[in-house]
């Protein structure tokens, strides 16, 4: 074969491959463009713009955690929100929007996420996150509180229960666990046949580790591949891609994309080895809500049902047609479940609000006149 012919064939192959890639890129862009042109009821929602009073909590190992306090300071109950893996405190947008006028709210970025400081890989564990939460409660929550955790944030709450059971019933009056697991995530089938899922799990850990070591290169690729990430998250993070707002998908994708690849790699082993089934007895001391999407493939409903089996007094809400990001996909249902939890907390601990106000006064958390006003309000509610 002549050199010219070989070059010609190589050029044709390269040209065909380039044309195929270009066609695929155009098709992808066309598909994303069509999705974005659909009517979008959430287009004007100020995602990522709701802000509270900034605070910094320095942990015992020297890590600075970023937090925000929102809502009235004199509210007798604080709600603390713990976000999920690869997200940040802004993921609670709808909950902040609907609760900030009534309750004192605390949002925080878990270590290595959002605006909180980075740490070495050996400090990226669920137990360490639980210790961080304990220190955050001590620094920012002087009275009684309710803890709400999504995904990894739910695991953080379980780690707190495992390490500090004395807080539950006294300081922590209620818990909501959203799209999370008490353990055995490494056994997920991901909707695949058993043998294939085992191979996927076997290959995932070293693959994630390699990506972590090449994080700078991977992050550049992630920044360039927004349309691909948009389409992938639209289908994998939400239960019904045809109804989810493109603005919501963009918002979630931007949070995930802002989480460095090496952080994703550092926390992956901790998620796979997470096992806090023994801590569920502690959570049974307080009213607990369990919420999960019925199409969640990351933390499937069976995991929430297992948590429910270990918490006989808990209430399980399985949200139809939703997946892992149920708090963004069906916020009204999630917020209704949170409202039910707050009602159960009030019914279970009618005197607890007054005790919490006393604690606020004793620790200097509220001026005396506010304490008196809150005491009158709480006593009227308790009666």
TrEMBL record:
Source superkingdom: Bacteria
Keywords carried by this UniProt record: Hydrolase, Signal
Region annotation (Disordered) ranges: 359-383
Record has Hydrolase as a keyword: yes
Pfam entry (one): Abhydrolase_1
Annotated SUPFAM superfamilies: alpha/beta-Hydrolases
UniProt signal peptide: 1-22
GO molecular function, one term: hydrolase activity
Gene3D superfamilies (alphabetical): alpha/beta hydrolase (3.40.50.1820)
Domain AB hydrolase-1 stretches: 78-331
PANTHER family per record: HYDROLASE, PUTATIVE (AFU_ORTHOLOGUE AFUA_2G14860)-RELATED, MONOACYLGLYCEROL LIPASE
Protein name per Swiss-Prot or TrEMBL: Alpha/beta hydrolase
């Amino acid at each position: 074969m002549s050199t010219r012919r070989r070059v010609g064939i190589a050029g044709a192959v390269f040209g065909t491959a380039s044309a195929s890639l270009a066609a695929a890129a155009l098709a992808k862009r066309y598909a994303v463009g069509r999705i974005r042109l659909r009517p979008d009821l959430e287009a004007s929602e100020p995602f990522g713009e709701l802000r509270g009073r900034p605070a910094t909590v320095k942990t015992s190992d020297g890590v600075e955690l970023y937090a925000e306090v929102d809502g009235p300071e004199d509210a007798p109950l604080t709600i603390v929100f713990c976000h999920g893996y690869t997200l940040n405190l802004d993921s609670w947008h709808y909950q902040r929007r609907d609760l900030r006028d009534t309750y004192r709210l605390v949002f925080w970025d878990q270590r290595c996420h959002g605006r909180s400081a980075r740490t070495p890989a050996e400090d990226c564990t669920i137990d360490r996150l639980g210790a961080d939460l304990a220190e955050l409660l001590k620094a920012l929550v002087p009275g009684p509180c309710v803890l709400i955790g999504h995904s990894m944030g739910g695991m953080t709450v379980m780690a707190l229960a495992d390490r500090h059971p004395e807080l539950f019933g006294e300081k922590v009056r209620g818990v909501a666990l959203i799209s999370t697991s008490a353990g055995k995530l490494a056994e997920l089938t991901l909707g695949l046949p058993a043998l294939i899922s085992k191979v996927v799990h076997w290959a995932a850990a070293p693959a994630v580790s390699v990506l972590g070591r090449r994080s700078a290169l991977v992050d550049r690729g992630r920044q360039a591949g927004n349309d691909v990430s948009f389409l992938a998250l639209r289908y994998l993070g939400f239960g019904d891609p045809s109804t989810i707002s493109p603005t919501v998908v963009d918002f979630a994708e931007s949070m995930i994309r802002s989480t460095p690849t090496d952080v994703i790699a550092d926390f992956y082993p901790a998620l796979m080895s997470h096992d806090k089934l023994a801590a569920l007895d502690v959570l049974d001391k307080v009213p607990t809500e369990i919420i999960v999407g019925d199409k969640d493939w990351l933390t499937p409903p069976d995991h929430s049902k297992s948590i429910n089996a270990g918490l006989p007094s808990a209430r399980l809400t399985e949200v139809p047609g939703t997946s892992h990001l149920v708090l963004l996909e069906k916020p009204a249902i999630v917020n209704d479940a949170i409202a039910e939890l707050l009602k159960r907390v009030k019914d279970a601990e009618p005197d607890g609000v007054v005790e919490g106000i006393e604690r606020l006064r004793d620790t200097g958390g509220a001026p005396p006149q506010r304490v008196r006003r809150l005491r009158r309000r709480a006593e009227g509610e308790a009666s």
